Amino acid sequence: MKAIFPPLVTGTMVFTIGLSILETGVNKLAGDIGPVDPYGAPNEWGLGLFTICMIVGFYWLGAKYSIPIFKSGAMVFCTLFGTIFALFAEAPFKYGVAFDGSLMLPMIVAFILSGLECMGDLTATAKLSLLPTACDQFNLVRQGGLLNNAFSSLLCAIFSAPSVVTYTQVRE
């Protein structure tokens, strides 16, 4: 593949994609969502810059002290720390609570599809791991995965965030 896509070509493409999404990233960082905070509110910038600094810090610590979990898990750790920081910077139900009955049916369909996707992901992962899928223990695992998916979607709704979607790309 290097003959067809040398590092110069792939690097240029990644750089171009990064430049094309830079405007969107800065707008999201400045908080252009919703009528509550003005564009460029200090708490929005503070939250974004805190998370970015944490990512760089974790990656630097992992590289300097040869801690591979810090390098590979920098994004996960910083998403967690950014969320905890946001609990103090932002309020749950920031945009209010409203109920539109016309959206109930599409949301029910979306949650059912999300649950089916989660069950398929769990089953495929178990089969590729050579674990039995026709037993009570696997049913408990699948039930826990579905409850986790539902709970994370509930938290996303409370904090006005997009719902979490389970996604795996299984290749044999």
From TrEMBL:
InterPro entries: NCS2. Keywords: Membrane, Transmembrane, Transmembrane helix, Transport. GO terms for molecular function: xanthine transmembrane transporter activity. One of its GO terms (cellular component) is plasma membrane. It is found in: Membrane. It is a multi-pass membrane protein. The keyword Membrane applies. The chain crosses the membrane at residues 45-62, 69-89. It comes from the Eukaryota. Belongs to the nucleobase:cation symporter-2 (NCS2) (TC 2.A.40) family. This is Uncharacterized protein. It comes from Vitrella brassicaformis (strain CCMP3155).
